[in-house]
Design a protein that fits this description.
GO molecular function, one term: pyrroline-5-carboxylate reductase activity
Shape: globular
Keywords: Amino-acid biosynthesis, Cytoplasm, NADP, Oxidoreductase, Proline biosynthesis
Distance between the termini: 34 Å
InterPro entries: 6-PGluconate_DH-like_C_sf, NAD(P)-bd_dom_sf, P5C_Rdtase_cat_N, P5CR-like_CS, P5CR_dimer, Pyrroline-COOH_reductase
Family: Belongs to the pyrroline-5-carboxylate reductase family.
Largest sheet: 8 strands, mixed
Oligomer: single chain
Order of helices and strands: EHEHEHEHEHEEHEHHHHHH
EC number: 1.5.1.2
Helix content: 40-55%
Bound molecules: NADPH dihydro-nicotinamide-adenine-dinucleotide phosphate, (2S)-3,4-dihydro-2H-pyrrole-2-carboxylic acid
Strand order of the largest sheet: 3-2-1-4-5-6-7-8
């Protein structure tokens, strides 16, 4: 892993999160390169992480053992076909983090036989607390799967799936998931302000509480449901609040929201796979 050269195609939010986590894990800045058309993104990445950047995708991909495709799904066809000369059977590993776009379509654009791992990471990778689902196509060697896993494990938890369709469920739960929790923190912050706290105080309390609850849920042998019960005194304040959330349909809403996210991943796959 320490000797792997990793080339990112696209230097936006997800790439930045992965790069930050990899650097924090001790990967040498010389082993990471980014291609992005935006001069501002390139300058910011070099300033923050000391990595080299280019505007030329092929120049970056040609020097990399692992090429991370981190552009928007809608751009993946164009970007992948542009790298076809550097792909193919027995060639370097491609690692796509794009939501929805199927491995078979990416392989067709890069060239049949290309070793490809599809990953669904999330932005907490930046602070090495990411969660990533992985799926490898039939062309990947054991060594390449290990390389993909080592990159993502450096920035958090990894989980292989045996059916590619499960990546869409992972997208809905943990890929998009940080946004759900950030939205809940925003809501709690706003609620705290309404209840008379200073905005900054309310934010700090909301964020620290989310962190504490997540840390506890991760470290405790007990399930989140048990931890919830321990906060909820019979006839107390939490019980009253949870009744309101349940009456408002919280669980149905979460089911509907994640189903919508998964459906969107499928729509993207169908739409973009036509190319
Ligand atoms: N953000 C997230 O939480 C997650 C994102 N993903 C996936 O990661 C991928 C990237 O998402 P995200 O980082 O959020 O998106 P961003 O738009 O932040 O990043 C994409 C980057 O690619 C650049 N770019 C545009 N065209 C090209 C090109 N032809 N060649 C190289 N780079 C190009 C963009 O530049 P410009 O802005 O100038 O267009 C931008 O800097 C998506 O496929 C998404 O599904 C997966 C999991 C989580
Ligand atoms: O919103 C999106 O489509 C991407 C994929 C998962 C998180 N962000």
């Amino acid at each position: 892993m320490q000797d792997l050269t990793i080339g990112f195609i696209g230097g936006g939010n997800m790439a930045r999160s992965l790069i930050g986590g990899l650097i924090a894990d001790g990967v040498a800045a010389e082993n990471i390169m980014v291609a992005d058309p935006d001069e501002g993104h390139c300058r910011a990445l070099t300033a923050e992480f000391g990595i080299a950047t280019r505007h030329d995708n092929a120049a970056v991909a040609s020097t990399a053992d692992v090429v991370v495709l981190a552009v928007k799904p809608q751009l993946l066809h164009e970007v992948a076909t542009g790298l076809a000369e550097l792909a193919g059977p027995g060639n370097r590993l491609f690692l796509s983090v794009a939501a929805g776009v199927r491995a078979a379509d990416i392989e067709r654009w890069l060239g049949e036989g290309t070793p490809l791992v599809r990953a669904m990471p999330n932005t907490p990778a930046l602070v090495q607390s990411g969660a990533t689902g992985l799926f490898g196509n039939a062309n990947t060697t054991e060594q390449q799967r290990e390389a993909a896993e080592a990159i993502l494990r450096a920035v958090g938890l990894t989980l292989w799936v045996d059916e590619e369709a499960k990546l869409d469920a992972i997208t809905a739960i943990s890929g998009s998931g940080p946004a759900y929790f950030f939205a809940f923190m925003e809501a709690l912050e706003g609620a705290g302000e309404k209840l008379g706290l200073e905005r900054e105080q309310a934010r700090l309390l909301a964020v620290q509480t989310a962190f504490g609850a997540a840390k506890m849920a991760l470290e405790s042998p007990d399930e989140p449901g048990t931890l919830r019960e321990r906060v909820t005194s019979p006839g107390g304040t939490t019980e009253r609040a949870l009744e309101v959330l349940e009456a408002g349909g919280m669980r149905d809403l979460v089911n509907d929201a994640t189903a919508a996210a998964r459906e969107r991943a499928g729509e993207l796959a169908d739409l973009l796979g036509e190319n």
